[in-house]
Design goal:
The chain has about 425 residues and is of the alpha/beta class. About 35% of the residues lie in helices and about 20% in strands. The strands form 3 sheets. Strands 1, 2, 5, 6, 7, 8, 9, 10, 11, 14 and 15 form an 11-stranded mixed beta sheet that branches. Strands 3-4 form a two-stranded antiparallel sheet. It is globular and about 65 Å long. It starts with 5 loop residues before the first strand and ends in a 5-residue tail after the last strand.
Length: about 425
């Protein structure tokens, strides 16, 4: 059976840069950081007191009032981003097409805020103070479940849980579902909200987070010699993937075509990337092979680029291994320099930034790149966005456990 072409027809974003695609993209292009001091709880006792929080979010704009309390914040974000994406796409889900529309939205850690809240309630006042909605609040696939219920999408319904690669795997797996003909449309992406005492404290004791508490806006600095760890963020990125045939049939606008998806495992260490980034190398090569794309056609890579010492160096090494001399002609940027690391939501958000870079011919910058690490010697688009015609963009995500995911997008040039 011939594999079907798949395009992107709708986008939805909730990020520390803003609520909605327009606000988030504008801030990213202008290099405005979304990092600040933590306000969601008292972090004064922690060594890390900064994060990329979503500000001014009102779930009532996207969810019925009586349903809000049944969902944790990561589900609220997923519902919002999915609503934006569906509306943007002009997709109408009816009795006739419902079984051909699916949902694939994952999270890395799920309902940690609910776990912390109700554990405290249990210890203080017993089990009767636990909400009957506690379990559905925390289960990761309830992001997909609630989105499918809201829109009546009766097709494939699933969720990836692959740490920092979650959003990318969710979109890639949704791409495969359409490609092989098991659905015509998929609502897919990633979501996360775990800026909590345990979430921040847990990463802090791993020494994974930046402690630049006095300059939060400068704390996330991928590829910079003075980087000292990543900054936690939260949010969601959801897209509408659609078979080209279906998109044309209903006259949908098309942002870009998704052409390649790669997966690999380091099989090396639970947190440290494999030597020379060899797992990332295999992942990027798999995406390029899957898309049948020549190295020279790739103009931009939205890097995993978390602002950790080994991660940034090894991703740079991997890009040079895959692309050879062309690596020095590529634009490589990390939008995590502005958003922080959105964990399970990162791949969904960065997919959208990659797609928008193709649509607008603009590469978002890596901000705070003031003193480049000598080991990181590519063009990371330091501090200012640049204009560039982009034929193909790649988005990388590499997660704890050595799980790697890579997506490849191409400018849509017609059927």
């Amino acid at each position: 059976m011939e594999q079907r072409r798949v395009v992107i027809t709708g986008l939805g974003l909730v990020t520390p840069l803003g609520i909605g695609v327009e606000a988030s993209w504008k801030a990213a292009i202008e290099g405005i950081p979304g990092i600040g001091h933590i306000t969601q709880f008292d972090a004064s006792a922690l060594p890390v007191r900064i994060a990329g929080e979503v500000k001014g979010f009102d779930p009532a704009l996207y969810i019925e009032a009586k349903e809000i309390k049944k969902m944790d914040r990561f589900i609220h974000f997923a519902m919002a981003a999915a609503t934006m994406a569906v509306e943007d796409s002009g997709l109408k889900i009816t009795n006739e097409n419902a079984e051909r529309v699916g949902v694939f939205i994952g999270a890395g850690m799920g309902g940690l805020p609910a776990i912390e809240h109700y554990h405290k309630a249990y210890l203080e006042k017993g089990h009767k103070r636990i909400s009957p909605f506690f379990i559905p609040m925390l289960i990761i696939n309830l992001a997909s479940g609630n989105v499918s219920i809201k829109f009546g999408a009766k097709g494939p319904n699933s969720a990836a849980v692959t740490a920092c690669a979650t959003g990318t795997h969710s979109i890639g797996d949704a791409f495969r579902i359409i490609e092989r003909g098991d659905a015509d449309v998929m609502i897919a992406g990633g979501t996360e909200s775990v800026i909590t005492p345990l979430g921040v404290g847990g990463f802090a004791v791993m020494k994974a987070l930046s402690t630049r508490n006095d300059e939060p806006e400068k704390a996330s600095r991928p590829f910079d010699a003075e980087r000292d760890g990543f900054v936690m963020g939260e949010g969601a990125g959801v897209i509408i993937l659609e078979s080209l045939e279906n998109a044309i049939q209903r006259g949908a606008k098309i942002y870009a075509e998704i052409v390649g998806y790669g997966m690999s495992s380091d099989a090396y260490h639970i947190t440290t990337p494999a030597p020379d980034g060899e797992g990332a190398v295999r992942c990027m090569r798999a995406a390029l092979k899957d898309g049948g794309v020549e190295l020279g056609k790739v103009d931009y890579i939205n890097a995993h680029g978390t602002s950790t010492k080994y991660g940034d160096e090894l991703e740079t090494t991997a890009i040079k291994t895959v692309f050879g001399q062309h690596a020095y002609e590529l634009c490589v940027s990390s939008t995590k320099s502005m958003t922080g690391h959105l964990l399970g939501a990162a791949g969904g958000v960065e997919t959208i930034f990659s797609i928008l870079s193709i649509c607008h011919g603009v590469v978002p910058p890596t901000i705070n790149l003031d003193n480049p690490d000598p080991e990181c010697d590519l063009d990371y688009v330091p501090n200012r966005a640049i204009q560039r015609d982009i034929e193909c963009a790649m988005s990388n995500s590499f997660g704890f456990g050595g799980t790697n995911a890579c997506l490849l997008f191409r400018k849509y040039r017609g059927a």
